[in-house]
Amino acid sequence: xxxxxxxxxxxVQAGGSLRLSCAASGRTFSSYAMGWFRQAPGKxxxxxxxxxxxxxxxxxxxxxxxxxxxxxxxxxxTLYLQMNSLKPEDTAKYYCAVARSRLPQxxxxxxxxxxxGTQVTVSS
Length: 124
Known about the structure:
Mean pLDDT: 96
């Protein structure tokens, strides 16, 4: 049984930082890309960032490029998202996911396992 558990969300002021973690279990994830998506109330789920199975290749949405950094520790089966210079528009529930392939993917249908999400709220 594959499980993804996100943590690290919370309430932060604009300009602040948070680090999200996603602990994966149930299989070896080093062969698969992983990603972060977010969904704000009343809006569609949106791609945030993705990383290849090896960690060598990454992708970011334009809205977070230069502020967010994705990384992974395959020995710990854990995915991270370091979020700096947070803005109120970053407020959303953040989900981690495991892709079907090794390379970073930007579309939700490329992912077959999802976590339950962690809430990030950025106050102005």
